[in-house]
Specification:
This protein is mainly alpha-helical. Helix content is 67%, strand content 3%.
Length: 118
């Protein structure tokens, strides 16, 4: 084991459990920050391990993670936002309101101003 691998293990052992605990507990913002930090830590580990093993082609994993982790953060954010919307005012409650306010619809379910299709 050389210094590169030892640094990767220390980084993963020190920051990994803290990020996982933060992703499992707390408010949504804390979980989102923990998931983002964990992807950064794993990306750094994916950069240290190829140096330790002397295989530069393994650095592609770090590049793929760097590209995909923001997309994962957006998916997580969308999931949390969708759950909060469902809890406040789900689409099946019949109130006709949502985040943008009440819907303005004429009888028959069409918005006002739209005529019947001929």
């Amino acid at each position: 084991m050389n210094a590169w691998i030892a640094a990767a293990l220390v980084l993963l052992a020190a920051a990994g459990p803290v990020c996982l605990w933060g992703a499992a507990h707390g408010q949504e913002v804390r979980r989102l920050a923990s998931v983002s930090l964990l992807s950064t830590v794993v990306g750094a580990v994916f950069l240290l391990l190829p140096q330790g093993y002397g295989r530069s082609s393994y650095q592609d994993m770090a590049l793929v993670l760097a590209v995909l982790s923001p997309a994962g953060t957006l998916v997580f954010t969308r999931f949390v936002a969708g759950r909060a919307y469902d809890a406040q005012d789900g689409p099946g409650d019949g109130s006709g309101t949502g985040p943008a306010g009440p819907r303005n619809s004429a009888p028959g379910g069409r918005p006002e101003g739209e005529g019947n299709p001929g």
